[in-house]
Specification:
The protein is α/β, with parallel strands linked by helices. The strands form 2 sheets. A 9-stranded mixed sheet has the order 1-2-6-5-4-3-7-8-9, with helices on both faces. A 3-stranded antiparallel sheet has the order 10-12-11. It starts with 19 loop residues before the first helix and ends with a strand. 42% of the residues lie in helices and 12% in strands.
Length: 380
């Protein structure tokens, strides 16, 4: 079995180191109303810096139809959050900084700042995600632990979501070799609460924990899919051990495929509904896994390719500074509660991609647009 070197590192060059002022501006922008990771990136690509984007938020939201300006995070609020985080041992890192997982920086909706606790060296090593059912079978838990242990021995870091069941088994089996917990809430709001001791053990053994949420943020249902994109985005591939139909683990697998990551599935009995999702993944082309060698051999060619993806990749089309009213009206009329692709909006409206993207940004900042996976958008 071809194994990577134990000290293998994922790295994107050149490295980045923010000033304190730049970190504050980034935190202010991502904490402002209706600004998510994709919107953050679009704003910075267009206006050149978070500070310049902050100055334009009220005008863009007004043009999108907002009745009143959304809340813009103040410098004092951002400074207070950073100070409280440091007391908790948390560093807020930007893509390209040491400790920000290199592959996570490559996804379209990478967090502009990531709250990191633990060993930075662990966060820079190649990762494999292991996810699965919270109500896993004994056999599923045993196999998840076996895979995690063998992957750790092969030099990989195991990343998972600190959930009950498969996640917990994978973390416990890889504590000594290195494991990363991805949190759906803030670092002080562990879910489930009984895994606080497990997280403490992970951090004590040179593991790490990451989140994009502020301290005090209790995880809600919609936060778990957001967390799942970080699990898959940071990894070379995602292994699904057990997953029923419509489970969160299948969402993680779908996100992994969209992000260009390898998807692996452990087959299970057709009589066990906990294996229905994984068996379907295999039918759809996921790599069947019966041991760690299947994973290592599949990712070995990827490991040989250096990561040279730029940390900030400008959008291929610029924004239109001020779309004409008829263009804006036409694009809004094409939108509705059913998701539609941005490419279809361009084709049907006859407007340029720059105008369409600008109108969508205005609507999003006004709280009137929802973005879905696969480049789909809908009107709220």
């Amino acid at each position: 079995m071809l194994l990577p070197q134990g000290d293998a590192v994922d790295a994107i060059n050149p490295s980045v180191e923010l000033t304190e002022a730049e970190r504050i501006d980034r935190l202010r922008l991502i904490r402002s109303d209706n600004v998510g990771p994709r919107t953050f990136r679009s704003l910075v690509d267009h206006f050149g810096s978070p500070r310049a984007a902050l100055e334009r938020l009220p005008d863009l939201a007004r043009r999108g139809g907002a009745q009143r300006s959304g809340r813009i995070c103040s410098a004092d609020e951002a400074k207070a959050e950073l100070a409280a985080s440091r007391k908790f041992g948390i560093a807020w890192l930007a893509p390209g900084e040491d400790g920000y997982p290199a592959r996570l920086a490559m996804i379209d909706d990478a967090p502009p700042l990531l709250a990191v606790r633990g060993d930075n060296a662990t966060l820079m090593r190649p990762m494999i995600a292991i996810v699965g059912s919270r109500n896993a079978s004994g056999a599923g838990l045993k196999f998840a632990g076996l895979l995690a242990r063998e992957l750790g021995e092969a030099g990989f870091i195991v990343i998972s979501g600190l959930a009950r069941g498969v996640d917990q088994a994978a973390h416990r089996a890889s504590i000594e070799s290195g494991t990363i917990a991805v949190l759906a809430g803030g670092h002080d709001c562990i879910y489930p609460p009984e895994h606080g001791d497990l997280l403490a053990a992970i951090l004590d053994r040179k593991g790490a924990a990451i989140s994009e949420m502020p301290l005090g943020h209790e995880p809600r249902a919609r936060d778990f899919p957001r967390r799942n994109r970080l699990i898959s985005g940071a990894a070379l591939g995602v292994v699904v051990v057990e997953a029923a139909h419509r489970s969160g683990s299948l969402i993680t697998a779908r996100m992994a495929a969209e992000q260009g990551r390898e998807v692996f599935a452990v087959p299970g009995s057709p009589l066990d509904p906990r294996a229905a999702g994984t068996n379907d993944l295999i039918k759809q082309g996921a790599t069947l896994v019966t041991g760690a060698a299947d994973i290592v051999n599949a990712v070995a060619p990827i490991m040989e390719r250096p990561l040279m993806h730029p940390v900030e990749e400008p959008d291929s089309e610029p924004f239109e500074n001020d779309p004409q009213g008829h263009d804006r009206d036409q694009i809004i009329n094409l939108l509705g509660p059913a998701p539609i692709s941005i490419d279809d909006l361009v084709r049907m409206s006859g407007a340029s991609p720059a105008i369409v993207r600008t109108v969508l940004l205005e609507l999003e900042l006004a709280g009137r647009l929802e973005r879905h996976g696969g480049g789909l958008v809908s009107l709220l």
